[in-house]
Amino acid sequence: MYLGWSKEVNATSATQQVGRTRRVHETRAALWSGTVESWIDLHPSDMSRSEALGVFDGYQVAYASSTDSEPHAAFWNGSAESWVDLNQFLPPECIKSTASGVWHDEHALYVVGYAATLWAPEAFIWSMPTPAPSTAMPLAIAAMVGMRRVRRRAGKAADAATLQRRAPTID
Question: Chunked in runs of 10, what are the mean pLDDT values of the chain (171 residues)?
């Protein structure tokens, strides 16, 4: 780790920890595997701030922002080079987003978080079929167009309605 940096852990899995490293005016997403020496800087090269918030089975999620942008939900697979900006899979009215959790099962990889429009934040689930072991992860994540959004709207009635929308997928 760089001299003069502090570290903060936000989430842990069985073998990894994620969080941020910081100094006066810089915050960078970070990944560890049990020791200070295992530290990996996940910070995307074209962003000015990032912080990792969730980790599961080798995948990391967070937000990253540039000096002239709102935070964007972010996804990694163990290195800064594997970074994917999840904002590209959101509807155009979304101005900022954050990913806070990640997991997978035998069917799909799921990333949870929120995205905000000018009006309000909304819960989001980004999902994609679980890639085959031989498939390159960056290419698989780039296909994450099977995004689902679940939103609660409060109407005049006492109960809120739950809406679900699924973006088109490429088969």
Answer: 58 79 81 86 90 93 90 94 93 93 93 92 90 54 46 31 31 33
For the chain, the domains span 6-166
pTM beyond 0.90: no
DSSP structure string for the chain? --TT-EEEEEEE-SS-EEEEEEETTEEEEEEESSSGGG-EE---TT-SEEEEEEEETTEEEEEEE-TTS--EEEEESSSGGG-EEGGGGS-TT--EEEEEEEEE-SSEEEEEEEEE-SS-EEEEEEEEEPPPTTS-HHHHHHT----EEEEEE--SSSSPEEEEEE-----
